[in-house]
Specification:
single chain; 731 residues; Rossmann fold; Helicase, Ruva Protein, domain 3; 6-stranded mixed β-barrel; 26 strands; extended; Vesicle-fusing ATPase; nucleotide-binding; ATPase_AAA_core; AAA+_ATPase
Length: 731
Amino acid sequence: MAHRAKFSPSKSRKKSPNRLVVDEAINDDNSVVAMHPETMKKLHFFRGDTILINGKKRKDTICIALGDETCEELKISMNKVVRSNLRVQLGDVVSVHLCHDVKDGKRVHILPVDDTIEGVTGNLFDAYLKPYFMDAYRPTQKSFCEGEPVRREDEDRLDEVGYDDVGGVWKQMAQIRELVELPLRHPQLFKSIGVKPPKGILLYGPPGSGKTLIARAVANETGAFFFCINGSEIMSTLAGESESNLLMAFEEAEKNAPSIIFIDEIDSIAPKREKTHGEVERRIVSQLLTLMDGLKSRAQVILMGATNRPNSIDPALRRFGRFDREIDLGVPDEIGRLEVLRIHTKNMKLSEEVDLEIIAKDTHGYVGADLAALCTEAALQCIRENMYVIDLEDESIDVKILNSIAVTKEHFQTALGTINPSALREKVVEVPNVSWEDIGGLENVKRETVLDKTIANECQENKIISSLSEVLVAVKTEISMLKMLDPNTMAHLAELSDSKSGKKSPYRLVVDEAVNDDNSVVALHPETMKKLQIIHGDIILGKKRKDTVCIANADDTCEELKIMMNKVVRSNLRVQLGDVVSVHHHCPGVKYGERVHILPVDDTIEGVTGNLFDTYLKPYFMEAYRPVKKGDLFLVRGGMRSVEFKVIETDPGEYCVVSPETKIFCEGEPVRREDEDSEDTMGEEIISSFNEMLAAVKMEMSMLKMLGLANIVLSVFLCFILFYVIVVLKV
């Protein structure tokens, strides 16, 4: 054990003294970097040595190393130009190495950048370059001063996408770098351990979340050959040409290894074979499976796929050995949106009043592409406001005007009203106009959507009224507050029923005791409501031997796969604690009730005086919108007594919601308790008779099966006797 501990990797962790943190330089020399003398001593550098500095996006440069005691240890000071050449910023990490093979240059070709020589006259070489290079020996990489100036646009276009250009997905980027960079840069690690490196990664997420951007950033940072495949490039009407195009792509990638094959919108070329009607799609899927299996384990070729519909891809592609890891690039949170905004605004001219943190809070549901569009729209709004000072007929714009233009907070606020998030474009999203003054008589037991709307208005938050776009609303209702969604009409129901979660049947729940005593409310755990696609305040339909309608409320104290209801609701369903009920998010024909006839139960009004409607029913229905069902019982507390009522008639429909406009009638003879109990007894007798009849039918079926078997044996026996007689007669 001691011998093993001696060679443990944790005991011999490699140190990296040549990796230094970038700091601001005091001087403004483009060919000099400064380090602390102790740092130079550790790296075996001497003053005046030429060193090679490696930055990001595979950029490097050479500089002269100088010692500076004001510079902190493990830091390197460089000016803005050197940082730009290395594509790094303050606080980034660079690696430094001694450069031994730098020779004196014989010929160097240098050109100016166009936007820096506007208004400059005279010979650029005599005025700028000769004093600069005659002052000291300066190392350089590029080699006259004759030719057209370099355009700033062309120089900016050379900035390839890197990890710094991807924001809001740092967790996903860590996984991707682990799965891609290690096999491409250090394949010997997997060889020494004795395992095969991963071959493929599937990126999925909403449109605009940065799937293609991440793939290009990984290719640029690793230096791998990037081969992008689109569906239009592969598909062909000629037989066999699509498979040939796919094969050529994989062969080209293997020749240029290390390489990354990126298949964008892979669901368009590799859909589920059982759902495709064309033979071409099936052949392409088979060819892709064969090519992925044919990739050599150490060929340094990584396959990356991107889609926003992962469930539409053929399941054979999603196993280990093909797409080893599936990474979800979801909608970024507030911190992620702030990172993306900083990336898109790093080159924008913003006024001091612009607070990106506030903008990040106001952009719920925005993905990277939406935030980029937001910044562009804010810039366009800024240009529109300054069009009166710009003459479109002029070939150029005055520099003073350009310097005075900046994007302000108001421009972003205007852009927020124009750019809608991609994730919410198919939903009805608005900030409600309901305030606290619009709610009166709200008790603790009342938890309706109007309360959520009020909070949303006070906080200026969006309130999503309609739910998932894949769900079809099967029932049209006149009540805007109700969201009645039928789970059976959900899109991709076949995938849900085939999955493990679909087979667990979350629609069947165990009855538990309720904490409150409201007859129109049941409580479920938030996770259970999420599985059932139920939102707080929805009207649900519960079924057992009877059915009833209630308002669903979320309660963390309720256990998962349980439903909490009081004694009256259990009585209406004819269930007890521990029984199983089925819950449906589909209440057919629920509307505002126009007329409801309600009568009390006789044994609960003994000794009660006064008007039952004013004392019990009016306060009960005025404090909340309550759903009722014809034939249900409900208990109302008022004064010193509790009175039980029964719903005799409801108009329109069997289910309805009682509102302040509903006419409630409470005239007639009270309901006898004996009649209610006789209904339960009758139901039990019917069920008992049905069970007896079912048992008799089963017995008859078993007897018929036995008789059928006897008839078969008798028939075989008679055939045998007949055959024997015929043979004997022939003899």
